[in-house]
C-alpha cells in the first residue's frame, strides 16, 4: 500500500537549511566509512553507492545492481534496496547538515521491479527539521535521472552525539570515521 496519502513530514518542521560548510553543488561525496555496507570501498559485495550534491540542495546517488544483490532470480532484493535508500537519505542528512545522525524510521514503497544490471538513480532531499529530528525523502529511478520511478522512501533521522558510536559501537569509532573524513578533507561537527 502506498503511503502517498499520509502527511509528510508528520509533525510541524522548520526548513532544513544546509550548513555553511556543506559540500557545494557539483561536489562528489566520498566514502564516509570504508567498511560501510552502503558506500564502503572495502566491502566487496556492498552496494558501493556513489553520491554527489546538486543545487536542490539534494544528494543524488547511483546504485549499480549486481548479481550479489538478488532476491528473486534477476531482481534486486527489497531489503537491499531499502539499505540503498538508508544510505542515500543518510548521506543527504549528514552531508547537508554536517551533523552525525542515525536512522530512527525508514519507509519504502516498491513501485516496480529493479533488475540485475540496472542502475538506480536515487535523489534524496531534506524535508524539514524539528529539534533533533530531520525528515528526508527520496525517489529511485531506473537507469537514468529521469527514468521511471522504481522505489520511493522517506525517513526520520535523529541527531546524536559522537558517544552514540563509541558507546554502542566501536570505542575506536571516532578514529576510524576520522580516517575516512581525512580522506575527504572534512571534519565532523560533533555536537548535536
Ligand atoms: C562533517 C560531517 C560530515 C558528515 C558526513 C556524514 C555522511 C554520513 C553518511 C551516513 C550514511 C549512512 C546512513 C545509514 C544510517 C544508519 O543506518 S544508522 C543505523 C540504524 N539506526 C540505529 O541504529 C538507531 C537506533 N536507535 C537509537 O539509537 C535511538 O532510538 C535514537 C534514534 C538515537 C533515538 O533515541 P534518543 O536519542 O534517546 O532520542 P528519543 O528521545 O528516543 O527520540 C528523539 C525524537 O525522535 C523521535 N523518534 C525516535 N524514534 C522514532 C521512531 N521510530 N518513529 C518516530 N519518532 C521517533 C522521538 O519520539 C523523539 O521525538 P521528540 O520527543 O523530540 O519530539
UniProtKB/TrEMBL annotation:
First-listed, main subcellular location of the protein, grouped into a coarse class:
membrane
Membrane topology note: Peripheral membrane protein
Q: Which GO molecular function, any one, fits this protein according to its record?
A: hydrolase activity
Q: What is its EC number?
A: 3.1.2.2
Tell me the keywords, alphabetical order: Apoptosis, Cell membrane, Cell projection, Cytoplasm, Fatty acid metabolism, Hydrolase, Lipid metabolism, Membrane, Transit peptide
Q: Which reaction does it catalyse?
A: (9Z)-octadecenoyl-CoA + H2O = (9Z)-octadecenoate + CoA + H(+); dodecanoyl-CoA + H2O = dodecanoate + CoA + H(+); octanoyl-CoA + H2O = octanoate + CoA + H(+); (5Z,8Z,11Z,14Z)-eicosatetraenoyl-CoA + H2O = (5Z,8Z,11Z,14Z)-eicosatetraenoate + CoA + H(+)
Question: GO:BP terms for this protein?
Answer: fatty acid metabolic process
Its subcellular locations are: Cell projection, Ruffle membrane; Cytoplasm; Membrane
Pfam families of this UniProt entry?
4HBT
Which GO cellular component terms, listed alphabetically, does the Swiss-Prot or TrEMBL entry include? cytoplasm; membrane
> Region labeled Disordered — which residues?
1-26
UniProt enzyme class: hydrolase
Keyword Chloroplast on entry: no
The UniProt family comment states: Belongs to the THEM4/THEM5 thioesterase family.
Q: Which residue range or ranges hold the Thioesterase domain? A: 74-134
What SUPFAM superfamilies does UniProt report for this protein, alphabetically? Thioesterase/thiol ester dehydrase-isomerase
Matches recorded under InterPro entries: HotDog_dom_sf, THEM4/THEM5_acyl-CoA_thioest, Thioestr_dom
Superkingdom field: Bacteria
Q: What is this protein called?
A: Acyl-coenzyme A thioesterase THEM4
